[in-house]
Amino acid sequence: MSLVLLGSTSGSVTLQEPAVAGTTTLTLPAVSGTILQSGTTVTEAQGGTGTTTGYYGFKNRIINGAMVIAQRGTSAFTQSTSNQFGLDRFDCTGTVSSKVSFVQSSVAPSGFINSTLITSLSAYSVLTGDFFVYRQRIEGLNCADLGWGAAGAATVTVSFWVRSSLTGSFGGYLANASLNRSYPFSYTINAANTWEQKTVTIAGDTTGTWLTTNGSGIEVGFSLGAGSTYSGTANTWAGSYYVQPTSSTNLVGTNGATFYITGVQLEKGSTATSFDYRPYGTELMLCQRYYFKMQGVGTSGYFGTGFNDTTTTALVVTQYTVPMRAAPTALEQSGTAADYFVNRAGANTTCSAVPVFSGATSFSTRTEFIVASGLTAGQGMFGRSSGSNSYLAWSAEL
To answer: Residue 161: which of 218, 222, 217 has the closest Cα?
Structure first.
């Protein structure tokens, strides 16, 4: 097969395959390096501050990299020793609790509206066995094509925008689910309180075990401080869990130090391209695979339909917006019993206890709504909110 390039003075190029009916016109607009096919991107421009019009696919393997989705709320969270989530898909953890707070912020570089602000809560002297990270675990199904753990492992590029009250050499890392393969990388913050974009290109790991299931495929993290146990040689693969290169700046060592991050992207290839802006609704649904929240909105808020199992218990079935990564094993809820109703036969009965988890699959969940008395077994009902203080949520986070 051969292709003939026919130029035109109008700035378009026609690709025509001989002996095949029809032609495909590729328009070259003013943006250098971008090719549009009838208004749809087929080759994306390098660099820039936004995704080229019409880009398709899943270029950025990070979900919510622009920090716009915050189902859990916009109040500050405090780092814990066990995967404390705040903004969707990102968690902050460490070997000692309460060393930093983190919250969605409206301070952002041009082209973004949100970031995560992380603030050190003390001047903590990091011990040998300490580490503190802000991270996201990418599901194995979303990075299986990289082919890591074998010959031919694909190169990836990590890019992000960062701003800190501190300057110097900072660290980040990639790691596998078993935490026995990692790549600690370094980047430099040159000016205090100034947004800077950083890019790191990483040759794919040809050894180790990298999950391609619904488990953690690649852990992408940014170090907030670590001791020697979790610090290694910069920019090389290691058979240990290293979250930063040796001698990196420890944010937790300075009381009140701030660290902002946004525009986090991990993509296949050796070049950092423009950030993959996806529609807000698409990004929200990607997040809801891992965390699904239904917020009460007054007495018109419905959590689901069901039936009265007994005179005091009703079973409510809630269908998730999208199938979750795995079946949740617990219910998260807020408020008191008075914030929930059982609605049947046109009447509301206030609950006598907060809703209770009753079972779930990756497609739907069942919740018990409990009242003191008065229900008719077998009768249909709605589970309702009695105010905005109530919400129900389910997690399938990695």
So the answer is: 222
Let me know how long the chain is: 398
The neighbour count for residue 26, using CB atoms within 10 Å, is 15
Measured CA to CA in angstroms, residue 313 lies from 118, 281, 352, 355 at distances of: 43, 35, 10, 10
82-95 mean pLDDT? 97
The enclosing H or E element of 233 equals none
Contact 287, 63 (CB under 8 A): yes
| Mean pLDDT in residue range 160-175 | 99
Amino acid symbol at 285: M
- Alpha-carbon distance 316 to 368, whole Å? 6
Domain boundaries, the chain: 4-43, 77-285, 289-395
CA 140 to chain centre: 14
Considering the segment(s) 77-285 as one domain, its CATH architecture is Sandwich (2.60)
- Rounded to 5, what percent of the chain is helix, strand, coil? 5, 40, 50
Q: Please state, as a whole number, how many other Cβ atoms lie within 10 Å of the Cβ of residue 223.
A: 29
> Cα angle at 359 between 355 and 363, to 5 degrees?
110
The average pLDDT across 9-14 equals: 46
Q: Give the rounded percent of residues in the chain with a pLDDT score beyond 90.
A: 83
pLDDT at 367 over 60: yes
Residues in contact with 186: Cβ distance below 8 Å, sequence separation at least 6, in sequence order: 169, 170, 171, 234, 235, 244, 245, 248
Would you say 332 and 394 are in contact if contact means Cβ atoms under 8 Å apart? yes
On the question of pLDDT at 21 being above 50, the answer is no
**Long-range contacts formed by 352-359: CB under 8 A, 24+ apart:** 352/312, 355/303, 355/316, 355/331, 355/383, 355/392, 356/331, 357/329, 357/330, 357/331, 358/315
